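A quick aside before the break. I want you to see a complete sequence-to-structure record at least once, exactly as it would be stored in a machine-readable document. Don't worry about memorizing anything.
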Amino acid sequence: MHCRQGIGRSGLIAAGLLIAKGVGSAEAVERISKARHAPVPETSDQRAWIDSLAPSLIRVSGAKGRT
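That is the input. The structure line, written in C-alpha cells, reads:
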C-alpha cells in the first residue's frame, strides 16, 4: 500500500494492520519507520490516532498487543 509519500496515510493503515495482529503501537511505528526509511507517522495527530485506535483493534482482533 502506498500514499503520496508512504509515511502518512499508508503508515496509519500499516500500523493498524500490525496492531490488529498483536504488535504494540510503539513497535508498529518503529517497524514501519524502519521499512520506509522515514519517521512514521507524519504528524503528531496521526500518532495520537494510532495510539487511540490500538485498544479497539486489539479488542476486535483478539490480539494481545502492547501499546
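Two observations worth writing down. DSSP finds three helices and no strands in the chain. The mean pLDDT is 81. We'll return to this after the break.
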